[in-house]
Design goal:
about 650 residues; alpha+beta; eight-stranded mixed β-sheet; hydrolase activity; globular
């Protein structure tokens, strides 16, 4: 039996330590022909260091010892930072961005020379030529880093194989080692806008040849079947579908109104895999929920595996086994293996403890609701839930609106302690897949073009009103939180709408002109599609230039080593708000970059957010170890 208790004051088993522990991030995966499985593991209790873990007949063990940190800086977001060849492992090290080799006995030695200003990603083994192939980013180039595709010999010599495009990704070798393919794109495109598929004949002296794609077709993850046929994911149909390359161009293998691809923010992603016998397997997403399928290569018919997961990523196949990371509303992202016939599911490693009582877990409903301009928006709605407490009679719960980053991204349906932290304390949560989010086809993805700061704001506002109209949220107790591009949406909602009583901006954007002038190469033209380059329009959409319209308290959380959204974005917003008497809290983390990795900082961030909302909405959290959040000017409880 549950007892009424003010929302926000419910004691919860999901504490700040739980959220920090969930900062353990499972990333890139790999399988070897010998049956070993390897994966990256970012550990908050080691200051956010990432290592490579391997599971094989010898057990489970770290392959990269401390203090090495497996992290590429290419595009700032990195990915594809290690590769295996039997017992040998190569990885990009965070501190010096050099490639290092780890031998079977654990010996680590540097392969590429230091202090050259080079970063590497998407490492591939070219076994016939006893070398590595990698994407290289040269930070000595002017006016921005230069991309190239390089070969790295056993003694560390670096030779350029291809260059010219602004961006290069996804190098892949044919099974016979004769052909090398990759993707490229140029400013102002992002990889989900338009990419080109290239091929180089390594057995000859020819130049690279463009095979498919272009500025209006997004290609993702080129991959060779064991018979040498080349496949790639293309959105020419309006949805990312699997295609086969032929002499006549790309021929669709699948014909789904669903997504077989994801936005290429990082290197090393995989949603399609071939087994050694030519079996084709894929992750497909519909309305934000993912399934694992086998694909008939002749007809495109899908057979769905019966698995307890709604979120899937990092699919690999080898020797009749599949490996992937899967999660659901009650399961945190978990590294799994599975027989190719669908039997023998094994869970190797979970990113967070999923053994909470089922009665405390809030599971989401996927909702669609009308928004501005006669359009429709998507979101996941989580009701407040606790086995011991309930919303007092006659009340509706406070609502936390969550805004994902990107903005070309999406919410995740896997168990997220950062959401359960709030629902188990009496909050409803609306995790918004505003227009521009992925998983709903190219048209929905492009609905944000020219409308960032307008369409996403409207979708958050209309989502809150929709829940209020359904009696599911208190319209007088709405708060909003988001990171990076989601932080920009937070500040825009607070500035240009009157729906929230307070907000938390995690390394969010306040001044679009400054961002355009100072952000890194990968996103330096992103705004041109999202808004445009007219200075008057950029100022019109920038919360900083309309700070007089922002009247509610705001919490700013910022890493001081962030190169994606520089710290001055938060600093200028805080100064502008305090100048006009609006309470603002500003918490900085000197060693953090874009996204918080260290456990102590993750605890501080979410604990501060809870204490902040309690102060603004007038509740006293049951937690006794929350940080102090100084507001300037001071702001008491309502």
């Amino acid at each position: 039996m549950t007892t009424p208790r003010p929302c926000g004051e419910w004691p919860s088993p999901v504490g700040t330590d739980t959220v920090a522990a969930a900062g353990l991030k499972l990333g890139q995966t790999a399988m070897t022909a010998e049956g070993a499985v390897a994966w990256t593991e970012r550990r908050p209790d080691e200051g956010g260091r990432t290592t490579v873990v391997m599971a094989d007949e010898r057990g489970t063990r770290d392959r990269v010892p401390a203090p090495y940190d497996v992290r590429s800086a290419v595009h700032e977001y990195g990915g594809g930072a290690f590769v295996l060849d039997g017992p040998t492992l190569w990885f990009a090290n965070s501190e010096d961005q050099c490639i290092h080799r780890v031998d079977a006995d654990g010996t680590v030695r540097r392969l590429t020379p230091p202090d050259r200003g080079l970063s590497f990603a998407d490492l591939q083994v070219d076994r016939p030529r006893r070398r590595l192939i990698a994407v290289c980013e040269d930070h000595n180039a002017d006016p921005e880093p230069r991309a190239s595709l390089v070969a790295i010999s056993e003694d560390g010599d670096i030779r350029t194989l291809a260059s010219g495009p602004d961006f290069i990704a996804s190098p892949r070798l044919s099974p016979d080692g004769r052909r090398l393919v990759w993707l490229s794109w140029d400013h102002p495109n992002m990889p989900w806008d338009g990419t080109t598929l290239w091929q180089l004949d390594l057995a000859g002296d020819g130049e690279p040849v463009a095979l498919a794609g272009g500025p209006a077709e997004s290609l993702f993850q080129p991959i060779f079947a064991p018979d040498g046929s080349l496949h790639v994911v293309s959105d020419a149909s309006g949805w990312w579908n699997i295609c086969r390359h032929t002499d006549d161009g790309l021929v669709p293998v699948t014909h789904e109104t669903a997504e077989f691809g994801v936005p290429q923010w990082v290197f090393g992603q995989s949603t399609v895999a071939f087994d050694d016998d030519g079996g084709l397997y894929a992750v497909v997403s519909r309305d934000g929920f993912a399934s694992l399928v086998s694909v008939a290569r002749d007809s495109g018919r899908l057979r769905t595996f019966d698995l307890p997961f709604t979120h899937l990523e990092q699919l690999r196949a080898s020797g009749g086994r599949l490996t992937f990371i899967g999660g659901s509303a009650t399961t945190a992202p978990t590294l799994c293996t599975l027989n190719a016939d669908g039997s023998g599911l094994q869970r190797l490693r979970a990113s967070a403890d999923s053994d909470w009582p089922e009665a405390v877990l809030s599971t989401p409903d996927a909702i669609r609701y009308p928004t501005a301009d006669g359009a429709e928006a998507h979101a996941l709605y989580y009701p407040p839930r606790h086995p011991d407490w309930q919303v007092p009679g006659g009340e509706r719960p406070p609502l936390l609106i969550k805004c994902h980053g990107g903005p070309t991204g999406a919410t995740v349906t896997a168990l997220d302690p950062r959401i359960q932290f709030w629902t188990s304390r009496g909050f409803a949560v609306l995790d918004v897949n505003y227009r521009g989010s992925v998983g709903y086809g190219r048209a929905y993805r492009e609905a944000l073009y020219g409308a960032w700061g307008v369409a996403d704001v409207a979708d958050c506002v209309h989502g809150a009103r929709y829940l209020a109209d359904q009696g599911l949220a208190d319209p007088g107790r709405v708060v909003i939180s988001g990171s990076s591009a989601g932080g920009y949406t937070v500040l825009s909602v607070l500035t240009f709408a009157r729906v929230a009583a307070a907000g938390a901006s995690y390394y969010g954007i306040g001044d679009l002109e400054r961002l355009l002038a100072s952000t890194h190469k990968f996103e330096s033209r992103y705004l041109l599609r999202l808004i445009g380059e007219d200075p008057a329009l950029l100022r019109a959409r920038s919360p900083l230039h309309h700070a007089d319209r922002l009247t509610c308290p705001v919490l700013f959380l910022q890493g001081l080593k962030d190169k994606v959204v520089p710290p001055d974005q938060a600093e200028t917003m805080v100064t502008a708000l305090r100048r006009q008497g609006v309470p603002a809290a500003h918490i900085t983390f000197p060693e953090e970059r874009h996204g918080f990795r260290a456990a102590i900082n993750i605890r501080t961030a979410i604990g501060s957010e809870l204490a902040f909302y309690g102060r603004i909405l007038g509740f006293t959290p049951a937690d006794t170890d929350l940080p102090q959040v100084p507001l300037q000017p001071d702001h008491g409880s309502p």
